[in-house]
Each structure stands twice: as structure tokens, then as C-alpha cells.
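Kindly review both lines to help learners:
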Amino acid sequence: MGSLIPAVLREERQFARYFYGQALSMVGDRISFVVVPFAVLAIDGAGAAEVGLVGAATLVPFLVFALAGGVWAERLPRQRVMLASDLVRFVTQALVAALLLGGVAQVWHLVVLMAVFGTADAFFAPAAAGLMPLIVGPERLQEANALRGLVMSTGLVAGPALAGGLIFLVGPGGAIALDALSFAVSAAFLARLTPRAADPADAPQGGFFAQLREGFTEVVSRTWVWSTLGALSVYHVVVLPSVFVLGPVLSAQEFGGAAAWSVVVAAFGVGSVVGDVVALRVRINRPLVVAAAALAVASCQALIIGAGPTIPVIAALEAVTGVAVALAFTLWETSLQAHVPQAALSRVSSYDYLLTAGLMPLGLAVAGPVAQTVGLRPTLYAMTLLAVPVALALLAVPAIRHLRAPAPVAPPVAAAAPAAA
């Protein structure tokens, strides 16, 4: 039975403790992602605009607070920042659930509470990235990130079904109450963590703004960091709107609506699970070369959606891109954690969240009007024509090609027994 448990969970006890708490929280997030729009629509007079407003309230705080979150994750113990974030998110989700269950929720209530939730999220994410090397050995980072990704991918497949069942059984308010409980469980596991102590010599010096500038310097001084960040930004701003905005619109117009699109989303989730399993089992020595190639494949999603003749074809190809997305992001996160100094890791990671989650609402807002102006399919084709060359260009960057995975740690050699007299 023990062999069925990934080695990183058997050998890294602190990571195992962290992982079990986070696994439930991540599944709760996947459920909440599906439930919240229905919770908004259950409010009298609410429609698509209100759903978008509540969604934006969750994401926009990354634009405002991601960089600050990175700085404070290095000024304070990361574990404490994450614990505080979990407690804040527990309270906000519990309040949302209470308002919905009480039948008194208004759209403005959800906008305010989701903005607080998103702000806590903006502090949690950089702290979590910086914590990983303190609870996982360098040779196990890829496995640890892949295992976290596997839970998220599984949630992508199972989340809609679980959310639908919970909405039927306990309503949106009850489903969000369970998500709130998942943050309380995560906080309980975090409180019991004992991560390795960071080197006191690595403690950041100077005031808040000085550390903010140092974080920017850490990013621009590494070609492989800023070039990959640029490509990932294009993926989030240009490609992902094809999945979140234009794909559903095309499905509604030509393929039968939400039921057909859910097949595509599920297929992508299955592909992501496969990609995470590959990253969990296969050691990749040149991680960013593989990540860049995988990002180029992932950037074909808009073309697949626009050119796919039927839903089964689109779903099959989206499954392939799901494999690529899982590999790209696991290898990117692992590379940051392995090669960026511990003292700067949260600040560097905060730029990742700023340029991905923070800028994605811009792409979501622009995609619809552009498609209305130039046409749905031409917009989808243009997305791919722009994004794929950017991803492939990473392969021309020497620092990308030369970056290596951490060397595996050799098992200790037993001391020879003394010769008999």
C-alpha cells in the first residue's frame, strides 16, 4: 500500500501535512468557482453583468495587492501570512453563505466580500510559493508541485459535478458554507507546520519600498524569469479569454450551449490530470525547454476552439492542451522555487501572479468587443497567431535552454564496518 503513496508524501512529512490541508481547500475553491455565479443569479434582478462584477471583484485585488503580498511574505513568516489569509477567507465565505442562506444577500454584499477574499488570496499565493522550498527538498519540488496540480486538475473535472450536487442538496449558500469550512481545515493544518528555518542572513533589508524595488531587480536580472513571465502574460491575456469567453459563446451559437461546452471543460481537466501524473513520475532535466514547448501547444486552444468541426474533436484536442498546461505550469513553478534565492522567492512569485491572475480580467473584458467587431472565428485565429510565436520564442533564449533541474540527492553511503582484530 505504501508504494501507492507518492514518495514526496512519504519522505517529506511537513509537505504531507501542508498538502492534505490544501487539497481540501483547493477542491473547495473549484466548487466555489462554479457555485458563486449561480449564487449571484439567485439574487432578484441579477444577470450576466452582475456575475461579471462579482467575478472581477475576486480577481482585481491581484492587480493592487500581489506585489505587496510578495513583500510582506518575506517581512513576516510565510506560514503566518498564509494562516491569516485562510482565516480571512474562512470569514468572508462564511458571511457569504450566511447571507445566501438567510435570503438577504445583495449583489453589493458579494462584491465587497469577494474583494476581501481576493485580497487575502493575493497575500496567500506569494507566501505559499515561498514556503514550498522550506517544506520540500529541492530534488522533490517537481513532484510536490505536480501533486498540488493533480488535486487542482482533479477538482476541475469533479468540481462541476460536486457543485451541481451541492446546489441541488443544500443550495448555493450551503455549498459556499462547505468551502468556508475547507479554509478552516487548511488553517488548522498550517498551524501545525514546522517549516525549516530560513537563513537569517537572507532576511530582506530596508523598508517596504526598498524591498519592492529589490524584487523587481531580482526579476529583471534573470533573463529566464522575465522572458517566461512575458510569455505567460500573453497566454493569460490573449489565449485564456478564448476558453472563458469566446468558447462558451461559440458553443451557444453552434454546438448546443452549456452542456456541450461542459464536455470540452471536462476533457481539458482530464488532460490536466494526465499532465500532472507525468510531471509527478518523470524527471525533466531541462524544465523550461519542455515548459516553453508545452506553452506553445497550450496556446493553440483558441485555434482548436475556432476550427474544431465538432465538440468531440474540440474536446479531444483540448485534452492534449490540458496535458501541456499542467506540464508548463508545474515546471515553471518548480524552476522558480529551485533557482530563485529563498529571500526573494515570494517577491518574484508576486510578479507572476500580478502578470497572470492580475491582468487576465483585461483580456476577458476586451475579447468580447473585439470578437463583435472583427468576428468570432477571426478573433480566435488571431489569438493563436499572436500567442504561439511568443511561446516558441522562449526556446531561442539561452538562459531558458541552459537552466537545469536540481540534481537528485544521492542516498547516504553506509560507513564500512571496522575490520575484525
